[in-house]
Amino acid sequence: FWTAGRLASQGDWRTLYSLDGLAEVMDAPVGAVSFAYPPPFAMALQALSGADFTTSFAIWLTVSAASLTLVVILERNWGVLGVLAMLFSAYVALRFGQLVPIAVAFVVVSGRALERDRPFVAGLALGFLSLKPQFLLGPVIILLATPSLRRSVLLGVATSAGSMAGFSALVAPEAWGAYLAGLRDVANPGVSTRWDFSVLSLTSELPTVAAVPVTVGLIAAAVWLALRSSSRTSDTRRKLAISLVLSLLVTPRAVNYDWTLLIPAIAWLSPSIELDSPVVVAAAVVALASLSGFLGMSWLAWTALAAFLALSVTNTDATDPGAVVR
């Protein structure tokens, strides 16, 4: 991120979105590093590019920790802190300075807005996820299938996401051209080693003729399961929680630190989280699955997510304040 901010401040977009160019700047093997975030995020990172790396990382770490602290405060439940403490992915996200802790804070703000019947504000907060578009995929699918939320929330998403995209296109139109061209390299499993963490690696050992339909089938099954689960509850925050799990199931790059996105999902799928509750125990299981994703065992991580989504709506009712995930 620090390098991305420096390259963005120099207007060197081709190098930023080129695997060869970025590897040369960072003195790393080609494919080992990549920057797949859209230009608005790179522009935001310019704010840290003026300082040295150590200072920039300290600032970023402080903002990330503050974001997770805000999550605990907004949820007003210390059980959430217990879930957070056990998630290996949260440690990795902080240790390696990832975006997901800040994204989680925006998600929780969105959930709080939905709870207070302010769908447009919820959409504005969700629009922040466009900086990591795969996070936004699940919410968009669920929102499109929910008439009561569709218009206002999606309008909010379009407003914030469109504003960021429009501003960056106005300031540096060449950035988007470099970004779209660079995605072809980043999305090539034969070039980018980071695809080892992808859910698509579930089918990497299969011949192409079989891998494609199997992958499409897995994604279709995840979408079907999420839509069915979402239709069985009228609680808007539970719908959002299910959509977050869906995002992790269908994302083309489910890296282990992204599992931090499960913090609000766990909180909302269980109205009552206590430090000794089954949900916190489940979080420990999720932490182990997250670790397996870090070790490249994405099949286990994918299976754990699918099971979590399926079990999260089993024998629960949004109108039952005592319902918990079993």
Percent helix: 55-70%
Order of helices and strands: HHHHHHHHHHHHHHHHHH
**DSSP helical segment count:** 18
Q: What is the CA–CA distance across the termini?
A: 39 Å
Which structural class best describes the helix and strand composition?
mainly alpha
What's the overall geometry?
globular
Rg over alpha carbons: 19 Å
Percentage of residues in DSSP E strands: under 5%
Biggest pleated sheet: none
Key structural traits:
326 residues, mainly alpha, 18 helices, disordered C terminus
Layout of secondary structure:
Elements: H1 2-9, H2 13-16, H3 19-26, H4 39-44, H5 46-49, H6 53-75, H7 78-86, H8 88-95, H9 100-115, H10 119-126, H11 133-144, H12 147-171, H13 173-186, H14 208-231, H15 236-250, H16 262-269, H17 278-294, H18 298-312
Helix pairs in contact: 6-7, 6-9, 7-16, 7-17, 9-10, 10-12, 11-15, 12-13, 14-15, 15-16, 15-18, 17-18
Short summary:
Helices cover 69% and strands 0% of the residues. By secondary structure, the chain is an all-alpha fold.
Textual characterization of the structure:
This protein is an all-alpha fold and 326 residues long. The protein has 18 helices and no strands. The chain starts with a helix and ends in a 14-residue tail after the last helix. The C terminus is likely disordered.
